[in-house]
Q: What sequence folds into this?
């Protein structure tokens, strides 16, 4: 239970994305009518990982709730996770903990913000901050 009540009227559109890989179900993208419903779900996303069985047929399940990011932002977040840098996303923006204070986060949304990351140029090219030649 995510602790959020969702009705059909709360969902604008939903569909599966990507290609099927083996027996794994494809991810579901869901666009909500109201931002507050989306924010409630994202705020409770860790609860989804505690759901172990499908309530309808009892099958084992793994549920992850994430914001749909551009491929570059997703690669940046993956790199931040690998480096164990505290960060979060909201409305497509990436908030990264300041080097001097983990309680303060700086929004990264513009090309200048991405270029200011203290990574080697080769890393910035790998994650897509700089275009490849």
A:
């Amino acid at each position: 239970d995510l602790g959020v009540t969702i009705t059909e009227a709360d969902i604008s559109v939903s569909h599966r994305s990507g290609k099927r890989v083996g027996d794994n179900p494809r991810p579901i993208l869901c666009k909500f009518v109201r931002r507050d419903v989306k924010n409630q779900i994202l705020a409770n996303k860790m609860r989804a990982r505690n759901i172990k069985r499908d309530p309808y047929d009892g099958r084992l399940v793994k549920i992850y709730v994430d914001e749909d990011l551009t491929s570059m932002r997703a690669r940046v977040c993956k790199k931040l996770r690998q480096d164990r840098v505290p960060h979060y996303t909201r409305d497509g923006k990436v908030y990264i903990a300041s080097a001097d204070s983990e309680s303060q986060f700086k929004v990264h949304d513009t090309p200048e913000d991405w270029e200011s990351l203290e990574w080697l140029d080769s890393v910035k090219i790998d994650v897509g901050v700089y275009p490849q030649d």
Summary: The first strand starts at residue 11 and ends at 16. The CA atoms of residues 85 and 97 lie 7 Å apart. Residues 71-127 form one domain.
